Amino acid sequence: MPSDPQSSPAIIQVRDLTLGFGGRPLLKDLCFDIAPGEIFVILGGSGCGKSTLLKHLIGLYEPMAGSVTIGGEVFTGTEGQARRDILRRFGVMYQMGALFGSMTLLDNVRLPLEEFTDLPDEAMDLVARLKLQLVGLAGFERHLPAEISGGMQKRTAIARAMALDPDILFLDEPSAGLDPITSAELDQLILRLSRILGITFVVVTHELPSIFTIADRVIMLDKETQGILAEGDPAQLRDHSEHPWVRRFFNREATEAS
Ligand SMILES: Nc1ncnc2c1ncn2[C@@H]1O[C@H](COP(=O)(O)OP(=O)(O)OP(=O)(O)O)[C@@H](O)[C@H]1O
């Protein structure tokens, strides 16, 4: 079961984070915590900076100000072995899965093991097979990405992100391009991995059914104020948020102007 957010120290701490491009801030002074085992979802209107925030959390971009701490270690600005140690603690699934098309599923999942470990060849194969099995893809090890469905490609990307037994998985729009049934199956996989392995998930998604199925907690980013408009349980926010825009978002209602 996910830990009670109140009882465990945060696995991710974001403090006074300001981020943007070309000296122009997109989001300012963000502060939030993510608890171990939580499924945490980042929401907001198009272009408000959800993916950019995710890229800051995983260290792809350096912030204009503030810090990200992962597992008690300050990640922002950390270099060398200390940075590699933090990188090993999380896996990432990018928006379209980003599998290498010329490599089998097994070789795709082996990649992080080759980069970060000196395990013998057979051990890497064994670990990669186990990860594929965990996402329901036993028997597909020798397939190429083009030979499997979109949902299976997403699951392979999750298996690869789990290769190093991470504490945290970051997923950028995992349902993008999937039909509603495949998307619902992916939600169930996320829930199962969360329950069985206690992995913390940080997910960017627009999909309302996914949000209500998987999210323990959400933050809603706001383009106008460049901050966090709302934070909490999605059903609570849908029914009781003081912000009309937040209630409309969750109830999928158009604004008067649109
Ligand atoms: N590398 C970059 N350089 C300059 N501007 C960027 C870069 N990446 C994103 N942006 C801009 O930052 C803003 C936020 O983009 P981002 O992709 O983070 O938004 P988002 O909330 O994830 O949007 P969507 O829901 O449409 O995917 C956009 O205006 C985008 O054009």
TrEMBL record:
<dbReference type="InterPro" id="IPR003439">
    <property type="entry name" value="ABC_transporter-like_ATP-bd"/>
</dbReference>
<dbReference type="InterPro" id="IPR027417">
    <property type="entry name" value="P-loop_NTPase"/>
</dbReference>
<protein>
    <submittedName>
        <fullName>Phospholipid/cholesterol/gamma-HCH transport system ATP-binding protein</fullName>
    </submittedName>
</protein>
<dbReference type="GO" id="GO:0016887">
    <property type="term" value="F:ATP hydrolysis activity"/>
</dbReference>
<dbReference type="InterPro" id="IPR003593">
    <property type="entry name" value="AAA+_ATPase"/>
</dbReference>
<dbReference type="GO" id="GO:0005524">
    <property type="term" value="F:ATP binding"/>
</dbReference>
<keyword id="KW-0813">Transport</keyword>
<keyword id="KW-0067">ATP-binding</keyword>
<dbReference type="Pfam" id="PF00005">
    <property type="entry name" value="ABC_tran"/>
</dbReference>
<feature type="domain" description="ABC transporter">
    <location>
        <begin position="12"/>
        <end position="250"/>
    </location>
</feature>
<keyword id="KW-0547">Nucleotide-binding</keyword>
